[in-house]
Design a protein that fits this description.
This protein is an alpha/beta fold. The chain has 20 helices and nine strands. The strands form three sheets. A four-stranded parallel β-sheet has the order 4-5-8-9, with helices on one face. Strands 1-2-3 form a three-stranded parallel β-sheet. The longest helix is centred in the middle third of the chain and has 22 residues, at 267-288. The protein is globular, with a radius of gyration of 23 Å. The two termini are 43 Å apart.
């Protein structure tokens, strides 16, 4: 029997062990998509206790605590941090086979030197150990530095001032780049009741009164240029699916007028507006040399009762299996007609979309970048051992795995960088298995290049970051 999460955790063959220990674990981390708060980096926040790091805003853990019958007061309510930690520890011991079990223990091992296992009985020991180090050793910046992160991209709305990014960039004592990533979902969501209020805010920040599609595009261009001046090279979109329902500018003008007047928008109008919106921005990304990330396949806020109490992003989302791949192909084809496809990364929350994404990518590759169109790493409900293995296997079957840009945290926690280690172990297990099975030669020069590329170097080259 293997020891619990030892140095060869998830590495079952000699080839896998060699690839991980000789190459993968030595590579830095480029976290090109996360949801951490840049203000906490600028101010170098120090956390009072492990609950603040682990359970504040982490809806992955909240979902599992609810699955364990934990009362909401111990999850998002007014229970003490110690009580919340106890309930999480009691839940964790039941999560056999869940990636949260592995992530949590990797974090305890790497940052706090704890090699036991967290459960209800050991909660007090772990609480005291972690809190002593959080109060005397770890700050946000030291956690980032200890994780060997060279650059990270936050997620930022077009109306954001990016003041904290500016302060970080001007601070010579911290050499990790913290760059903004453009996330214009609120401007895209024309069907939402707060659309008109948001557009008014965008008008104020850009100095351009938005009354139609032309003025909306000018306002967005204004903010795109500002983000570009702050080092932004990445956009990100949360979509129901990648749609293509073309419309004239006059039709889009009429839809915007309805939305600004507070009138309800039909589904067809929503799709026409969003198609025009995304086509415009994709062409702007191509002009600026940015990469475009498309995240889709999520049905959000399913529990109406809990949404009324807690709002969005609190653990009540699920996989949506409606995503017409023909429309995604048509969207890219419309950009291809004028040779304006930006570097594009496509993520679906539904693992059944892996093959359709893989085949669509192959239709639009060109020599302007290796792997110009990418399938994003296994995302959200799929970033576990089986999901990561399936995504990379599909990509290998249908495309060029050696150009894959690898893992990201997609997290709000400063301890989540161990997810890169988890990914790298799974990557090396997969590649090592192919070598052991005679499906790829034991060519260490070639394997080194593939592993180091997927872990770090491909992303540096793909995004054009200066490191």
């Amino acid at each position: 029997m293997k020891a619990f999460m030892d140095k060869d955790f998830l590495l079952s063959t000699e080839s896998a062990q060699k690839l991980f220990h000789n190459y993968a674990k030595l590579m830095p981390i480029l976290d090109y998509h996360c949801h951490i708060n840049p203000q906490e980096i600028a101010e170098d926040r120090r956390f009072d206790n492990i609950t603040q790091v682990w359970l504040g805003g982490d809806h992955y853990k909240w979902r599992q605590m609810r699955s364990n019958g934990v009362e909401e007061k111990y999850i998002t309510g007014d229970a003490t941090d110690r009580e919340k930690f106890q309930k999480w520890a009691e839940t964790l011991e039941k999560l056999i086979g869940n990636p949260l079990y592995h992530w949590s223990h990797l974090e305890l091992q790497r940052y706090f030197g704890y090699t036991g296992h967290l459960c209800g009985d050991t909660a007090e020991e772990v609480w005291n150990l972690c809190n002593e180090q959080l109060q005397n050793k770890w700050t946000v910046r030291s956690l980032i530095k200890a994780s060997n992160v060279t650059l990270l991209c936050t997620t930022d709305d077009p109306v954001d001032s990016l003041e904290w990014h500016k302060k970080i960039a001007e601070d010579s004592s911290f050499d990790v780049q913290v760059l903004p990533a453009w996330r214009p979902d609120k401007a895209n969501n024309v069907e939402k009741p707060d659309y008109a209020a948001y557009i008014d805010k965008l008008s104020q920040v850009s100095g351009i009164t938005i009354k139609d599609f032309s003025s909306l595009k000018e306002a967005l261009k204004n903010r795109l240029e500002f983000f570009h001046s702050m080092g932004c090279l990445v956009s990100d979109h949360a979509l129901e699916y990648v749609m293509y329902v073309p419309a004239s500018d006059e039709e889009v003008d009429a839809i915007i007028a309805k939305a600004l007047a507070g009138k309800s928008i039909s589904k067809e109008e929503e799709l026409k507006y969003k198609t025009a919106f995304m086509l415009f921005l994709a062409k702007e990304y191509h002009r600026l040399g940015w990469a475009m990330q498309l995240h889709y396949g999520c049905k959000r806020d399913n529990n109406a009762y809990m949404y009324q109490q807690l709002g969005p992003d609190t653990g009540f989302d699920c996989i949506n299996n409606y995503a017409p791949s023909a429309q995604m192909a048509d969207f890219l084809n419309a950009l291809s007609a004028t040779n304006e496809i930006p570097r594009t990364i496509i993520y679906s929350l539904n693992p059944n979309d892996d093959a359709s994404i893989g085949t669509i990518l192959g239709c639009f590759q060109d020599p302007s970048a290796q792997g110009k169109l990418q399938q994003g790493s296994a995302w959200w409900f799929n970033d576990h051992k089986q999901g990561m293995t399936a995504q990379m296997t599909s990509l290998a079957n249908l495309g060029c795995l050696g150009n894959f840009i690898g893992m990201l945290t997609d997290s709000r926690s400063f301890l989540s960088y161990t997810r890169h280690e988890y990914f790298r172990r799974i990557l090396c297990e997969l590649l090592g298995g192919w070598v052991e099975n005679g499906e790829y030669p034991d060519d260490q020069k070639a394997l080194k290049q593939i592993v180091e590329g997927i872990c770090y170097k491909n992303a540096v080259k793909y995004f054009g970051f200066h490191l």
